[in-house]
Amino acid sequence: MSRLNHDQVTVDATAEERLERAIGHAAHLLPAQGPIGVFIHHNTLHAFQHLPFEQAVVEAAERFGAMPFLSEERYRDEVRRGRIRIEDIEAVLARETDEEIWPRTLTRRELRRALIWPGLRQFSASNIEWMIEEEGLLDHLREDLSPSVREAILADGAVKNRKQAARGLFAACFRRTPEPAGTDRQAPVRPRDGILDLTGVDADRIVHPLMIRLAALFLDQGQAYWPMPGRENGLYAAIRDLYGQSDLFAVMPERVGLDGLQQRFREQSDTKMDPREIILAIISSYGIGEAEWESFITAELLALPGWPGLIHLLEQDPGLAPHEPLPCSLIDFLAIRLTMMDVALGNIWKDSGCSGDHRHLWRQISAMSRPTESTHLASVANLFDAAQLLGLSAGQINSLSESEFYRLRNELESFNEYERRRIFHLAYERRHEIEFLAPLNTHRQSIKPEAKGSGDVSERARAQVFFCIDEREESMRRALEEVAPDVETFGAAGFFGVAVNYRGLDDAHGVALCPVVVTPQHAVIERVAERDQHLDQKRQQRRKLWADLAHNSFIGSRTLVRGWIGTTGLGLLSIFPLISRVLAPRQSGLLYQWLSNRFLPDPRTELTLMREEQPDSHGTGDLLLGFTTTEKAARVASVLRPAGLTRNMSRVIVILGHGSTSLNNPHESAHDCGACGGRRGGPNARLFAAMANHHEVRLELKETGIEIPEDTWFVGGYHDTCNDDVILFDEHAIPASHREDLLFIRTVLDAARAGNALERSRRFEAAWADKSPASALRHVQERAEHLAEPRPEYGHATNAVAIVGRRRISRGLFLDRRAFLISYDATIDPEGNSLAAILGAAGPVCAGINLEYYFSYVDNERYGCGTKLPHNVTGLVGVMNGPSSDLRTGLPWQMVEIHEPVRLLLIVENSPAMVLQSAFRSDVVRELIENRWIRLATIDPDDGQIHIYRGGQFEPFTESVESLPEYASSPDWFSGELDYLPIVRVGAGITG
Amino acid sequence: MEYLIGIIVFLPGLVSLLLGAFWLLGIELSERMVARLTGLCYLISTGSILILLGMMLQTGQNEVRLSLGNWFEAGEYHFPLLLVIDRLSMPLVMLSTVLVGVIGAFSVRYLHRDPGYHRFFILLNIFGFGITLLFTAGSFDMIIGGWELVGLTSVLLIGFFQYRDEPVRSAIRVFLTYRVCDIGLLTGVALLHHYAGTAIFTQLFNATGGTWPQGGSTLGNGAATLVGLLLLLGAMGKAAQIPFSGWLPRAMEGPTPSSAIFYGALSVHAGAYLLLRAQPLIGSSKVVTGAVIVVGLLTAIHGTMVGRACADAKTAIGYAAMAQLGIIFVEIGFGLQWIALLHITGHAVVRTLQFLRAPSMLHDHHRIHAAAGGHLGETGNHFELIIPRRLRSWLYRLAIEQGHHDTLIERLGIGPIIRLAAFLTKVEARWTAIIIAQAPNPAAPLSSRNSLRSMKRFQIDSINRTMERADV
Q1: What's the ipTM?
Q2: Where are the domains of chain A?
């Protein structure tokens, strides 16, 4: 007996393990977006990254019911705008395999060329009748046919007039197109599908509102006043206890459609069933065999993907929860979901008067889907349109042999809509490549040869400034170079090599400031300088006071009695912030800033940076407080060396981290620094500067060949990409000898940020008229403070390219904020080590940003989170549409609306062999490149020859522009333009 | 000076007509133009109401009336177009012009580039017209006009994102709740005409002179109770009082500024305004007074309880508003008109600001959390102290299910009606079948959808039979 039991247990355990595995596989397809307070850009289709891009987007589109590319209509618009040329389409088609469809008269390429442009019109079962009856599809031939094609069709002897030509052709196509045979509709995957089909009642609509409410309350991080009781026991246990109460407390009406749910939870509670057992029991009761587990669970989870996605993510990494770590479990979620679903389906079945057991019958409800006449007509119309494009007359159609006709139809069917969109997309990307690489090529060839061989660094520059690689800093760097041509700029990933767990003076906890793939080993705490201790006390007391006040009034206004007193007695006072915030956002922002400066003392602080050499302390697993000299030197070198700044340093070197502040924007963090894990990178810049100013660090660096002159001073700073503020840290610590340098850099940075604001404003319609840099700066400051502004900044919307190379190959080009700029000097990297490090770190980050924008743009409802306007912050973890919807993941429309969806074009300044060799040292980068999730090009550091990586090999790129237009300054070129602008040369004389 | 009232009320109406006309004619006004027209409109009406206030204070008048004659007359009945600003309407009209103006300014930026931009502003201006008409109406007949315009724009803005399912469903649900409760207002006003022969406030309540809040009802006790209860029903719908409160969370489907102006600020307070206006009548019946207090009290408790178990920003604010609306009803029930009026204005402003700031929830929480040193006082603790665990989870579930009101309404109200309809359909079908059987040419018109369904059901039945046979 006991042995039998034992056997059963092992059998059950393996079944449960297999179930867990199936759930684990299904979970891969759920959105992987964490709590929205820290937004990390990632490839939306990460689960498909092992497939080639073109295949992955189509498979994902079918799986998720989403769009793989833009619509044909959108691409045709791009053709009309000149952003796709016919030659691009032809070039792309030329890369596809060709075949003769009809010997000597028609090739596949010719056919496809015609089907793309002028292109098939859209015919479907739903619009065909309208096209025929209202738009006179049969009354005339297409307007856009070339005269010769038209003549060919009309030349048919039997045709008397044009109308007859069209009708005759359609009739011929109709005769030849066989009636489509009936196809078996796919059997329903979920019981809900079958029962919806039969009864017209959707169980999802019964289950989801409750499921959403429960998931939101469970995951809540402090928004609800009353936390869910028992949630520390996990989602399943908490809900079973809430709904499965017995005795007096069970007396409650049940939701319509969920009668019996209480009883069901009570039974589960009595039998002490484990969530796994519940899932297995329900699945088997519906006769779903093990082979179908995964597809069933996937379909069930994808019906409401956002919430389980977050639960799954928090299950894997509970530390992602911003305030309350919770025992999340996808199995719990599924157990609840299936229990409710089972109850709901049973009720639907009963209510619609069906007999028998729905658990057995749901599969058999798969009627033959009889193709309607409209489907037939639509496929006739496709042929009709194709015949016109090819110049085939009715007579010719009629006289086609059976095999000729079969081959034509086959070709037409295989070149379906997805295929046409793929060709369009590749043509769109080809044009993008040419429009970017050709000017780059021309520019590169014009660079004076005397600088050849050396890095960026020639004579001693007036100042040098490091920015993040972020493409938003491209315009800032250009503005700075235009203002001060004797300043050099560099780009390095915005955590500046300092992966650290940082806790600022005003922070409650330390947070990791580094790329998400890195786990920081070191902690740094910002401390108050000894003599300012009293100021700090006052500051923290007042902040605490303010917090208590704000928190209590926030809660108070929602409770009964306090709310009554508050709204009656003091409510009218809210009219002042209400009116000032809405009508004068910038001024009220300034007022709040002034108040905060007035009442909060600002003590001087220092960083706990130094650590004595203690080699043993590694074993503890805890964070190390501060860095040793060697560690510091390594971090400073990791930024300076790849950038090629090993000598010829200027007297002042500024390191600018970045972040973004905006009001009323749940997606605020998506504008922060990706290299700092979706946070603000000011502390990293400050830390880097402090390290590089350290005397002993400099001595150690000197031994490794990086010579920092005695009179070089590093200054950390922070750039807010939303309001274009630039602050510099520790100005008081700058030696007196460098005051003038500081004054200079401060002045040019101020001019540059105004110029940057002006350039950003060109994209904002609300910025209306032409502005001066000063008023543009005020405009962007207003955006950051405006409660009603859904687009405080456009974020990464313009990203398309990443250039890894010396600034001199792009300096002086107007890149329109399209390129990530990563400083890299190939001439001092013979082994490719620096390059491998750069590509391994920056490649996935840039690709993640780029692909998230791509997918959020091509299908904003499915991959993105739709328009921001009805968004409703939920549980401090995400947004819903209105009061009850799935958790919306991806980017909102207002963030991506000006995006041009192309895959990242990664341009590396090194030889093709070296680039591949370095890039493939990282498996992720290898996968991205080989599966074409990013496009790769190289530019030779010596002669500037460009190569493009296509189909596994490099091809030389030879296009150039005859003359690159030159403008005195960027505003001369972009002023008054709202849209995309091509590359030109700006700021004559700043190219080196 | 009475013509200023006309400006205040009709200017928004005129602007919406103008915008609507351009829209219908296919002339596309620029966003800027729409913004300027709307801004100018509320600037003028706010200016007008301030001037009017100044003049009234100067002359010591408590009431200004604008009579535009009768709209129509039918026998003894006539419909007077009478606008009044007195001490009750003055603060509310001021509030309306300011808040609609502020929301308009907010929406210029918020809805920038949205395809529904024009539609939103047309609706906002119709709402501006409706709400000022409601607050300045001189008779219950005119209140109905404003009341319905407010209700209609409210519903259309809930369904603003018409390409999605949920907003449209929610809009219909809200519309139905409004319609059911409007029955109370409509029959109440009809009965007023029956009993008192008029629906003009002064004739009803101030026949002997004086202005609001003075006055008394001339109706008999029974009549006052009946009319009072019906008006209460009307007010309960707009003010989201239980058991009709289930629509309020659903109303959060619209864009944030419309949630603010309707469910934080103005529309939800219209019910309280109606009761305040009818105060002499309500006060004259103990039953009605009691009912107002009970409804208000229960709503306050319900709102605050459900609001505590809301994890999303907008619904939480909605329930917080509901709780205060309940208290406002209680105040009215106790005859504390001035306090109720102060409460309405203060509450409207607070909630508007909260709704507009709702998307900042994360940002604000983060800042407060950091400033408090990473530890905010835990909320919900005193429940744990007072209430035993089992009762607590019972209450929590009651809160999750929003008091089961929707469930009860669906089971006891909608369910029986649908079943009745189904029964009548069956009767009709039988009846038709009998008639057709007698007719020479039988043609059973079945919609294709139904026939497909019945085919499938037939299929299922035959499967069933096969399986039963197999079992045997």
Answers
A1: 0.91
A2: 2-43, 87-181+371-415, 191-368, 447-528+605-958+977-986, 530-586
